[in-house]
Amino acid sequence: MTGPADRPGPPPVFHEKRTYRRRRLIDAARIAPVAVLFLWLLPLIWPQTEGTGLRSATALVYIFTVWALVILCNLVLSRRLGSGPERDEDAPP
Amino acid sequence: MTTFNILVAVCACYVLFLFAVAFAADRMAMQGHKPWLRSPLIYTLSLSIYCTAWTFYGAVGSAARTGFEYLTIYLGPTLVMVSWWWLLRKLIRIGRTQRITSIADLISSRYGKSNLLAAGVTLLAVIGTTPYIALQLQSVTLSFSVFVPEASTAPDAQNGTLALYLSIGLAVFTVLFGTRNLDAKERHDGVVMAIAVEAVVKLVALMSVGIFVVWGISGGASEALARIDASEFGGWQIDRSRWTGLIFLSAAAFLCLPRTFQVLVVENSNEGHLRTASWAFPLYLGLMSLFVVPIAVAGLDLLPEDANPDLFVLTIPLHFGQDSLAMLSFLGGFSSATSMVIVAAIALSTMVSNHIVMPIWLRLSTRGASVSGDVRHAVLMARRVSIVAVVMLGYLYYRASSGGEALAAIGLVSFCGLAQVLPAMLGGIFWRGATRAGAFAGLTAGFATWLYTLYLPSFGAGSILPVSVIEFGPFGVDWLKPDALFGISGLDRLMHALLWSMTFNVAGFVAVSLLTFPSPLERLQAAQFVNIFDHSASTRSWTGGVGQAEDLMVMAQRILGAEEARALFSRHARLQGAKGDLPYPSPDFLEVLERELSSSVGAATAHAMVGQITGGMAVSVEDLMAVADETAQMLEYSARLKEKSEELSRTALELRNANQKLTRLSIQKDAFLSQISHELRTPMTSIRAFSEILRDTDGLQSADQSRYASIIHDEAQRLTRLLDDLLDLSVVENGQVNLNLREGMLGDVLDRAVASAAIGEDGARFRIDRVPEDETILLHTDLDRLAQVFINLISNARKYCDAPDPGLTIRVSRENSAVIIDFQDNGSGISPEAADMIFEKFARVSDQKAGGAGLGLAICRQVMARLGGSVDLVPGGEGATFRVVLPGPRAMAAQ
Amino acid sequence: MNKQVLLVEDEPNIIEAISFILSRDGWVVKTHSNGADAVSAVLDRKPDVLILDAMLPGKSGYDILRELRADPATRKLPVLMLTARGQVKDREIAERAGCDAFMSKPFSNADMLETVRSLASK
């Protein structure tokens, strides 16, 4: 992101607090899918041996808990991000 | 017991209800009630088109057979929704700004508007979707058989007829509401509203059954969980490869299925709706999947061994005598099936008509696309025919496969086929280096692999692919066996196909993209798609990255020529101290480049082109290419010629006008001379005639003698006055008159004028009304000239006023700083025709011998103009009113 | 019986001068000072010679002359045209309109008398 000196207005190193918050929220929105994918791929490493393994009901509760978290996270993110300007400041050039 | 006929009646009523909803929504949309129709809630509900009858019935069946695997089908789309910020937002923005009408259109548009690519994706979509439509028909007939057991034993023909009626009904609905108009953005308010209603029916139906099972049968949530643990899939068991693969597959399908793309991108009316959908749709999916396992467990526990788990949602309520609940559930499944068929038919028909039928029609039609109305009609017709064809194709597929077990597996096979579009799509919106050839290679490789390893074998060994090929590979080549490529066996067939088709797809896409060079249009579209947020956002000054320098280079080469462009770019790269030949697109450089380009294509075009590439302004790519192409310079040249010829004709017009003016002046001059001649000769005639009479006539009486002498005298005086006036006029007109500016009271000037003009030759005094108080205004002007004007006006009034008791009123008033003096007589006034010309020279209002030459008012007007004021006839009113306006003291002083 | 002249002219002093000249020669002079109804005045009075001014209020002398020439009753009526605009162009217009003689103002009294006499004897 560093261009020659004649580039107009190089991005400032420090942002004011609200802009900083918003950027971190955008970071969160980007990372969220990875985190959720990780949580839902966790069942892959659960023990599967008959009898000693995890109980189905527990697994079901786990998956739906993650689901509820997803809904909650997106609810918060969409509310917070929606109130800001429409433009994506961090969009790659 | 519900009979077949009641069931049919319920279905018919439900479909009629949908018709009504769609019709009402379309009507509302036409009346402008868009906000309500276009709410985020409707958008979210319409996304539920992803959940078809296959998921409505099949999820429970799948859970009963393979445990938790069914969840993956919902987890994938949820993951996609979680990626809304960086993926869906971009996709929707692209769809909106590029006016995308289908997924085939998206791919085609991104890769340089390639119709071949679009046709390929369309073909893939048709092949992938047709079995899916068949599946919906099957699920409806199956659910019928649950209610009417004799239907299951009935001959195939009866099920076939049912499916046929259903197909026809759906086709009619789709044609009616899907092809009402050729909206540029292909939005269908009525259909979307119907889909949203069906989404609610689906959810309510499934949840009602679930709640009945958990609280009605099992006796509470914890008991239900305990029952799950106690059941045969109490232990956590998943096929790890399928768990991973299916999450990926369903996520890909959610993005690539024509019907989901239709509602997600094409029917989206507001990007803001995505924010709501980002949490509301995962909620919907979560609720849809919440009760699947309890229902499956209950079904396995309580129903007979041979019960079809796919139909537990129906059979459990029926088993417990809950007929109305079963009917609700049936409607849920029916909703799922119908909404899928409707939207799939719309999406497919758009693709088929836009990318297959229309190109062929335009090529065959010799007239081309010149008649717009014709094309419009043809497009609508093509779309309607395509809808019917797509639905009927599904029906035929259903009949051909005779509703067998093979159909049940087709859902995921379809998913896998359509997922082949994913690499080209994601690559297209995130990677500028992706090329058309790459996309084509990837799609072809993936599609072929999918056909060979999954689609064709899914019909069963020996039906299309010979048994020998499946068991020993083609021509006995062992490592080419459809279910064990490269000798890797033991994988689940779906996962095997997914793995290899995606591998070949991505590899072909990336490799060929790296090796080939895109056309300028492709490069432009790539920039548009990948940098969509820069392009469609608010304007900024020229900024950009090095990637744009390449695009600028390509553009510059086309216009300036390769050598010159390269020289220009490397010169500026050196100036900037940049490495390589490409300068950084700094504002300075962009300005230089724009100037260079503008010498070839004109400033506005150059600005538009640079703006297009650097993202400063939005100009459509077609516009840009039209000028960037080699023909642009020709166009520009002819435009300049046109400009020149316009300039010439402008000059010619000016000359013509000037000539007309001269002619007019010349005519005026002739008329003036002729008029003067007349005015001079008339008194001279009398003078000569009477002087000859006096000279030649003998014995003339002395009374006659003196009378004739006085006529000669009067006429000589008239002649003198005329000459005085003429000289006066010419002096005033030429501006040679020297104004004798003095200070004086208006009242005094009027006194002088009245004194010299109010008494006629007959000695009768003319009555003049004045208001002396108003006249105490100090003037700074040429008082003698002003008096001359007043005298003229007063004597005119005296001469021409035709009232029995003639009189004149002089009123003085002030407006702002100007002084206004009105001279109003009590006569009959001046006719409108005469009013136009009284200020002209030699104009006389009446024909009697007024004694003047008709120059008085003309002189007055000239004098007033010299004094900075004016004299006019006030239109209307009683009698004739002349208004003299003098500028205010300050303005007069400046004269 | 004395011959009759109709004079159509709007300038009173000129009317008086011409009337004086012709009456003294024995002509009966009738006058009319308006162009608008000059044609009907001619038809009423049936003069032997018509003296017509070119510029008249209401209707120009040329127009009056054209109308008279279109009427069979007055087609042969001898007409002397007078005009105060002594341009060549005016003479051409008058002749084209069909006048028998043309004089520009001011005129000599003798010429006027001579012209009227010669017109009457035609």
Describe this structure in words.
Chain A is an all-alpha fold and 93 residues long. Chain A has a domain at 17-44 and 53-83. Chain A contains two helices and no strands. In chain A, helix 1 (17-41) runs antiparallel to helix 2 (56-83). Residues 1-10 and 84-93 of chain A have low confidence and may be disordered. Chain B is mainly alpha-helical and 895 residues long. Chain B has five domains: 4-196 and 239-290 and 338-406, no CATH class; 420-536, no CATH class; 538-628, no CATH class; 636-729, Orthogonal Bundle (Helix Hairpins); 739-893, Histidine kinase-like ATPase, C-terminal domain (Heat Shock Protein 90). Chain B has a five-stranded mixed sheet with strand order 2-4-5-7-6. Chain B has a two-stranded antiparallel ribbon with strand order 1-3. Chain B starts with a helix and ends with a helix. Chain C is built from five helices and five strands. The longest helix of chain C has 13 residues, at 12-24. At the B-C interface, helix 33 and helix 34 of B face helix 1 of C.
Helix content of chain A: 55-70%
Number of helices of chain B: 39
Strand content of chain A: under 5%
Distance between the termini of chain A: 8 Å
Unreliable sequence segments of chain B: 151-155, 367-373, 537-546, 616-627, 890-895
Task: Record the SSE blueprint.
The complex is a heterotrimer of chains A (93), B (895) and C (122).
Chain A: H1 17-41, H2 56-83
Chain B: H1 4-30, H2 34-37, H3 40-47, H4 53-66, H5 70-82, H6 84-97, H7 103-110, H8 115-147, H9 149-153, H10 156-178, H11 189-218, H12 221-230, H13 240-256, H14 258-266, H15 272-290, H16 292-302, H17 312-319, H18 323-364, H19 372-400, H20 405-408, H21 410-418, H22 421-430, H23 436-455, H24 467-472, H25 493-515, H26 520-530, H27 532-535, H28 546-560, H29 562-576, H30 587-601, H31 603-614, H32 621-628, H33 631-696, H34 702-733, E1 741-745, H35 746-757, E2 767-770, E3 778-782, H36 783-800, E4 807-815, E5 818-825, H37 832-835, H38 856-866, E6 870-874, E7 881-886, H39 889-893
Parallel strand pairs in B: 2-4
Antiparallel strand pairs in B: 1-3, 4-5, 5-7, 6-7
Helix pairs in contact in B: 1-11, 3-11, 3-15, 4-16, 4-18, 5-13, 5-15, 7-8, 8-10, 8-18, 8-19, 8-21, 8-23, 10-18, 10-19, 11-12, 11-15, 11-16, 11-18, 12-16, 13-14, 13-21, 13-25, 14-18, 16-17, 17-18, 18-19, 21-23, 22-23, 23-25, 26-28, 28-29, 28-31, 30-31, 31-32, 33-34, 34-38, 35-36, 36-38
Chain C: E1 4-8, H1 12-24, E2 28-32, H2 38-45, E3 49-53, H3 61-70, E4 79-83, H4 88-97, E5 101-104, H5 109-120
Parallel strand pairs in C: 1-2, 1-3, 3-4, 4-5
